[in-house]
Amino acid sequence: MDRGKYNIKAVAALVGLNPTTIRAWERRYQVLDPDRSESGHRIYSDNDVAKLRWIVDKQKEGLSVSKAIQLYEMPVNRTEVPIDYGIELRDQLFEALTNFEERHAHDIMNKAFSMFSFDKVIQDIVGPLLHEIGMRWEKGTITIAHEHFATAFLRARLSTLSLQMPINPFLPRILCVCAPEEEHELGLLFFTLYLRQSGFDVIFLGAGIPVPDLVTVTKQLTPRAVVLSCTISDHLKDLDEAIDQIQKQAPQTEIGLGGYAVEQHPEKYGDMLLGSDDNAWKSWLSRLTPTTGV
């Protein structure tokens, strides 16, 4: 029999949790049923420690505590549990969206949010999914109809959640819009979610609008920056006109650029380019918040 031999402070040190968290898990999830010493204090066994370590490891992978406990209790060999179930959900979501199965896609998203934290869903499921859909469209293995359906679904599903993210009052407003005539919103949608997670006040306009309308909206909203996305090279001429007009009529507004088309011309667009990863985005955004950072 595996008898208890560790007090709660020892267990906390062994598994990297604080005693308050361990007690909360016991109450909420009945994760452990420790023995009691003669004086009534909890004493934990080696099995208790191993179980907590397993749950903590799964939590670091992105699982919620309740899901990790559920998986632990499953009557299967734990080595058979997928290392990252998020990958499996991402593949399922891709199949559902490219087969226009909206209800099934909603079910998969519900499952993802029930299992993982919001950050995990966005960074490890939605982000790579958006990239995969964009890449498949560029290669011609899916149509623009598939891309538009996926974009509309994800935008509708995530817009409500993103509005629940708190805005940092010390961070400025950013306007996000595609280049004039540009309709490919996927990359811009993901960047918008990144901004909202970081606390920025974001206005997402999506598909491109004519240059005069874009200038009018920019002057009305007075954002600290306008982020424009351009995927198709044929739209670069209109993009250049938009940049020129914003710089002339709203000279205090920073301009950020992303998308395949502009990334092919680093010598032309220079420090307006946002880059393609978290570190590059943070570096570009730091110019908007010189005193507080991102």
From TrEMBL:
Gene3D superfamilies: 1.10.1660.10, Cobalamin-binding domain, Methionine synthase domain
Domain HTH merR-type: from-to ranges: 5-74
PROSITE patterns cross-referenced by the UniProt entry: B12_BINDING, HTH_MERR_2
InterPro entries cross-referenced by the UniProt entry: Cbl-bd_cap, Cobalamin-bd, Cobalamin-bd_sf, DNA-bd_dom_put_sf, MerR-type_HTH_dom, MerR_fam, Meth_synthase_dom
This protein's record includes keyword Transcription: yes
Organism: Exiguobacterium sibiricum (strain DSM 17290 / CCUG 55495 / CIP 109462 / JCM 13490 / 255-15)
TM segment ranges: none
Domain annotation B12-binding: ranges: 171-294
Protein name: Regulatory protein MerR
GO function term, MF aspect, one: cobalamin binding
Coiled-coil intervals, chain numbering: none
PANTHER family: HTH-TYPE TRANSCRIPTIONAL REGULATOR MLRA-RELATED, REDOX-CYCLING DRUG-SENSING TRANSCRIPTIONAL ACTIVATOR SOXR
UniProt lineage: Bacteria, Bacillati, Bacillota, Bacilli, Bacillales
The entry's keywords: DNA-binding, Transcription, Transcription regulation
